[in-house]
Inverse folding.
């Protein structure tokens, strides 16, 4: 099943049209930028940490609806998590978009489950993973 | 459309098996011809016949299969030469346009570029006609100059004149832009370059399937093109070089086939074009490319040109009438690239794909050109002789679906 409405779910379109946490993050102590030279998309994720917990997250960049929504939704999903939980959340999102189109969707993904539609569009996985890779680079930096 | 044109199109389409492939359960609307084209049955048959009837290698055996393969391969070279207005010994067979340009940048560049020299490329170029010159200039201590374009995507000839001086050893330019679809005035550009003693290389990857190519009339020194963009197989290409220019060039790649005599510590090389064809070539591909050019010649050239021009005008008019669409430059042939306001090209292309419409999205290997035109990326629709009004109309209808999803 690769219906275009399954790909562009309302949550994703909403975050594309009205991105959350968009712009430079005041007091950020981690930042990482990942680009896709094939399409020119680029996403920067910034994190502000308190001890080992993400106190705030922000993103900037340009890209398609999936890349923008992933940046926006990840900053929402990661805020408040400690580094280990954040890394696990990133792994879960990557596993989701790399899964077979008919694989069951884990029920602990929250809004990120909206990216399940990407499973039917192999050429678009990378669009979501730009933000995942940027966030991962922040956590390891 | 005239009845004749309609029956022509139906006959043309009937020969292209890939047009019958369903996409997401819909009729295939193939508008990514600038990326690669679809082969007609006679071309496919010519490629397959090499496997079944011409299994020998070329240029080395004396047995029956080798001689048959050799005759067919050299016959294909002669056919390709005839369609380009060239001599067979001026036709170097490569894996594609990219390899042809790299051959010139490396082999010609090694003999002709040095510190203080300059190469000029236009701001329109595909990365394949830009990056090889960046690398060659960096290796040889030469300077790369960029000839500017106007907002329509046409080379600014006044600005070009200002860039051309005795330091310029080569000018490289696309015949038909793969992004903005403009046609460069090659003869006028070549005359300017030759006036300062520079060689001229033309990237004909997009032009070969759409424009009549007569290398002698164009006035260039090198012409590079690909088989798969001209209804032939992938992995095939041509470098045409003027005989005297090729004769003065050292080899690019070294190996079998290109040598005249080999001793343990040194070798003598064959004359062009063999000198530039190391290793076993793509025999079936080259024979398929010749078949593709022969097959194209069976279609009435004037009818095809009129058909493609009319489709291109319909596409431009339809896009101009579509809210939120901005076309890049002022396209003249085969290709139209555009942006949809507020929607990324990849999202446009994914939604079009769901409607069965295949287009290209992204930078089309032309990142500096997109920056010049103020576009982060674009959607590209590109035509072939087997496209019809129904394909253009399907694209325009699918664009309304884009607005529904991103309302």
């Amino acid at each position: 099943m690769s219906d275009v409405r399954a790909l562009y779910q309302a949550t994703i379109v909403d975050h594309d049209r009205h991105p959350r946490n968009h712009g430079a993050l005041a007091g950020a102590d981690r930042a990482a930028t990942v680009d896709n030279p094939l399409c020119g998309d680029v996403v920067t994720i910034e994190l502000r940490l308190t001890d080992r917990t993400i106190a705030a997250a922000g993103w900037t960049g340009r890209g398609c609806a999936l890349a923008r929504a992933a940046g926006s939704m990840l900053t929402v999903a990661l805020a408040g998590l400690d580094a280990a939980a954040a890394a696990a959340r990133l792994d879960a999102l990557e596993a989701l978009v790399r899964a077979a189109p008919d694989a069951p969707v884990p029920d602990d993904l929250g809004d990120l489950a909206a990216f399940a539609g990407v499973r039917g569009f192999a050429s678009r996985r990378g669009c979501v993973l730009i933000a995942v890779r940027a966030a991962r680079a922040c956590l390891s930096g | 459309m005239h009845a004749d044109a309609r029956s022509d199109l139906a006959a043309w389409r009937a020969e292209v098996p890939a047009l019958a492939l369903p996409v997401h359960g819909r009729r295939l609307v193939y508008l990514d011809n600038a990326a690669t084209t679809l082969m007609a049955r006679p071309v496919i048959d010519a490629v397959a016949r090499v496997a079944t009837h011409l299994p020998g290698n070329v240029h080395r055996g004396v047995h029956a299969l080798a001689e048959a393969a050799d005759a067919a391969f050299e016959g294909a070279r002669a056919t390709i030469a005839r369609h380009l207005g060239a001599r067979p010994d001026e036709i170097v067979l490569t894996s594609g346009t990219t390899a042809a340009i790299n051959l010139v940048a490396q082999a010609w560049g090694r003999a002709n570029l040095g510190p203080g020299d300059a190469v000029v490329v236009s701001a329109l170029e595909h990365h394949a006609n830009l990056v090889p010159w960046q690398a060659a200039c960096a290796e040889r201590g030469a300077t790369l100059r960029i000839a500017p374009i106007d907002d329509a995507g046409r080379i600014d000839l006044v600005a070009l004149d200002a860039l051309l001086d005795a330091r310029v050893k080569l000018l490289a330019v696309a015949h038909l832009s793969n992004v903005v679809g403009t046609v460069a005035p090659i003869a006028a550009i070549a005359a300017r370059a030759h006036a300062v003693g520079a060689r001229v290389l033309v990237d004909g990857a997009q032009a070969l399937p759409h424009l009549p190519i007569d290398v002698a009339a164009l006035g260039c020194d090198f012409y590079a093109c690909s088989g798969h963009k001209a209804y032939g197989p992938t992995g095939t290409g041509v470098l045409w070089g003027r005989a005297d220019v090729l004769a003065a060039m050292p080899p690019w790649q070294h190996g079998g086939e290109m040598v005249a005599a080999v001793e343990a510590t040194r070798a003598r090389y064959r004359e062009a074009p063999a000198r530039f064809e190391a290793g076993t070539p793509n025999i079936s591909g080259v024979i398929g490319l010749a078949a593709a050019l022969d097959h194209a010649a069976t279609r009435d050239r004037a009818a095809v040109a009129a058909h493609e021009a009319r489709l291109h005008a319909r596409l431009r008019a339809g896009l101009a009438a579509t809210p939120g669409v901005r076309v890049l430059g002022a396209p003249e042939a085969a290709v139209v690239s555009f942006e949809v306001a507020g929607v990324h090209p990849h999202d446009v292309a994914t939604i079009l794909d769901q409607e069965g419409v295949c287009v290209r999205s992204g930078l089309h290997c032309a990142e500096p050109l997109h920056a010049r035109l103020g576009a982060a990326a674009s959607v590209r629709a590109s035509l072939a002789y087997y496209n019809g009004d129904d394909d253009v109309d399907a694209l325009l209808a699918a664009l309304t679906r884009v607005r529904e999803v991103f309302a």
Notes: Residues 45-297 of chain B form a domain with the Aspartate Aminotransferase; domain 2 fold (CATH 3.40.640.10). Chain B has a mean pLDDT of 96. Chain B has two domains: 3-30+301-405, 45-297. The longest helix of chain B spans residues 64-84.
